[in-house]
Amino acid sequence: MNGAVQNVAHLPITAEVAQPPKRPARHLFRLWRPVKGTTSALLGCLGFVAFLIVWQLGHYQTPIESQRFLPSPLQVISALYVLLTQKGYLGDVAVSLGRIFISFFAACAVSIPLALLMGCFAPVRAFLNPLISAARYLPAASFIPLLLVWFGPTDTQKLALLFLGVIFFLVALILDNVESVQKELIEAALTMGAKRRQIVGGVVFRAASPAIMDSMRNMIAVGWSYLVIAEIVAAQDGIGAVMMRAGRFLKVDIIMAGILTIGILGVLTDILFRLASYYLFPWNRKRTG
Asked: In CATH, what number does 72-288 get?
């Protein structure tokens, strides 16, 4: 037996045994593989460039007599430059920004306390949830005739339309955020003798705050999508009013410049909310990063 062990010990080690296990090959499209920040930024730039190339090709493929209905990216940027430097477009942008943020934060001021009460107290949820769930299926544009009767073609009518466009969805999203709070946190607070007000405000709201900020960031995008609808009815200023005036004279480059403006402002708004979430909730950075 000892001789057999010694013979085995003197056997040469083959190359297959000596080689370390092979690492899985790196593949960009591997399932669930995270993308690094640099790669993500590069892919985003490539996607934007590809979009511009397709746009430019579409312009060239359009017959010359119809190219004014599909202007090139350079023509749209030129129209945007003229609007900013010669047409007082910054004032219209400021008016639209004011309408968006005033209506949206008014909706947040209503929806956050309401969703907290619905998430923490089952009778409140049972009382309000059917109404809010049904209201989510009503298109905001359907309220325009009613709002015109109530408020006339005023800024109040436009703010009310933008408010109605996000309020019901925002309540539903924040309610989901509140209900996702770990029950262990509430039980621990109850064990330590916390009162209901302390649990709702100091435990549930603080625990759900990062998710609530994400819901707000997502819903303000919906507010931007309703901006043109709100500003097409008897509006004298704002991005939507500029686009509607351009439409009467078939100025497609100005219309597309307005669309580009809304897209840029939407991206900047999203970045603003991300930065606010990053600095307000530092304990949540690892989970979201």
From this structure: 1.10.3720.10
